[in-house]
Amino acid sequence: MRETIPLTRSLDLGGLRYDGSELILTLPLAPNVNDKGCAFGGSMACLTTLTGWGLLRLALGEQQQPADLYIQDQQTKYVAPAWAKMYSRCSWTEAEKSEFLRNFARRGKARAGVSISCTSDDIEVCKMDARFVALRPGTSKAA
Amino acid sequence: MRETIPLTRSLDLGGLRYDGSELILTLPLAPNVNDKGCAFGGSMACLTTLTGWGLLRLALGEQQQPADLYIQDQQTKYVAPAWAKMYSRCSWTEAEKSEFLRNFARRGKARAGVSISCTSDDIEVCKMDARFVALRPGTSKAA
Fold it and tell me: How many CB pairs under 8 A join A and B?
C-alpha cells in the first residue's frame, strides 16, 4: 500500500498483523492530528477503509488473482475522539472468504461487505461498515 | 485547515469558494492516487468530511463562537472513480444555518446534518451525508 497509495506514507500507515482471516493496521496520532489535538476523522476513515480493502486484497493475492478492488460505500460512526495511536481490525470467516474468492474465480466479479473497528487506548473510537467490489482488470467500473 | 490539520497539506487541499451558504474545496489527483491510478476512496472521504466540517466551522467563525466541531457519523457512496481534480461542494439554507447557530448560542451545543457532493470531470464521483456536533471548548465529548 505504501508503494501504490502515496497518502498512506503521509498517514504513516503501519501493518501490525495478518493471519489469513484478520488484518490489523495502525496509525500514529502525530501526522493525523486535528485542530483539537485528537485524530482527524478523515484519517480514521482512511485507516478503516484501508483495513477492509487490505483484507480483501490479501485474500485475492493468496489466490494469485489479478483484480481491481474498489470501495462501493461505507458508513462510519465516530464513537469517541482518539488521543493516541490507532489500531484498526477487520476480519471475516472462512466461509465469507471462500464465497468471495469462489465468486471472483467463477465470474470475474465479487462483492463483500466487512466491518472494521478502530480502537485507541483500548477504547473503540470508530467503526465502519464497508462494501467492496473486485473486478478483473480491464472490466473496470468506468473508463 | 492547512495550519491545524497537517494531513490537509499532504492531501494538497485547496479552497475554491465560500459565499456564506456554500463551500467548495478541491483536491488534485496526484497526491491522492491509488493503486489503480484513480483517486483513493479515503482521500475522497477526507475531502468531503472537510467540506462539511468547513462549512459549519466558517458559520461559527462568523459569529465569533469558539467551538469544538466534531464529526459524529457519515455515510458515503462511491459512485464512480475520479480520474482528475476533485471538487467537493456543501451548502445549507439560511434557515438551517440560523437554527444551528441559534442552538449553539443558546445551549452551547448544536448538531447539523449536511450533504456533500464530490465531482471530477463534471461527473459525480462520491456523495456523503454527515452529521456534526459543535460543543463549547471544555465541554468536549471525552477528556
Answer: 114
State yes or no: ipTM above 0.85.
yes
Residue A2 lies inside a defined structural domain of this protein = no
- Flag whether B140 is in a domain: no
0.90 exceeded by the pTM?
A: yes
CB contact under 8 A, B45 and A49: yes
Range of the domain at A91: 7-135
Q: Answer yes or no: are the C-beta atoms of A25 and A13 closer than 8 Å.
A: yes
Count up the domains in chain A and report the number: 1
Contact B45 A42 (CB under 8 A): yes
Say whether B6 and A140 touch across the interface (CB within 8 A). Answer: no
Query: What is the arithmetic mean of pLDDT over A123-142?
Result: 88
Helix (H, G, I), strand (E, B) or coil at A77: strand
- Which residue reads 482528475 in cell numbers? B84
